[in-house]
Write the structure tokens for this entry.
Amino acid sequence: MKNQTWGMVMLIFVLSFITFSGYSQGGAQFRVLLFSKTDGFHHESINEGVTAIKKLAERHVFSVDWQENAAVFNDKGLEKYHAIIFLNTTSNVLNDEQQKAMEKFIQSGKGWVGIHSASDTEYDWPWYVKMVGMMFKIHPAQQTAYLKVEDKNFPGMERFPPKLLWTDEWYQFGERKSDDLKILVSLDEKSYNPVVKWGTNEGKGMGFHPISWYHPFDGGRAFYTALGHVPLVFSDQTFLDHLYGGIYWAATGKGL
């Protein structure tokens, strides 16, 4: 009787192991590269962002590899990924060969996600600037303002309220570099003080002020959100839904 009981225990263990192994090896929906190299300002919120995206991967069953070493940007290094996330990158993070590898990656039908200072990155790379769509120009002091939903027809926007009080660092952007940007969220400039001056560089607001958008780009997909300066933003469920929606769409092209 003891032998039979032991045999049953072993059988259950083996079956459980096989099931778990199959899930571990083949269960991920997609795989993303999380890249957070900085060559300028280093955001404190990078640590919270990495933790949050790893938790999103657990929750939504996708794989994520975190890198700050740009050597991964080559054809072989990128081939296993479905999307690349630029998490608060700054300044010049890729050399010419690495830039070409990323261009080929997007052109193959894959995706890119930019968070906050991803728009403060690689100003001298025209392809990248056009992919982002608008680049960071200046920002006033961190303060509270109202966000406004412009388009709910995008993954992760389902629970985003039409109007939302939010505290963050409000980027003002230069001119649009892509004409096909689809704006998801804008900022109500009447709800905060957008006026700022850094030497000869001034910001007085943008009139209509986009804060998150997406577009098809060069055979692939690009999603950007300017939210994400304040570390605690990465524990806010509304933002996490918004961010995962962008990751999901960039990696799969699904959801619209």
Observations:
- DSSP finds six helices and 13 strands in the chain.
- The domain at 31-252 is CATH 3.40.50.880 (Rossmann fold).
- Confidence is low (pLDDT under 50) at residues 5-25.
- The chain has one domain: 31-252.
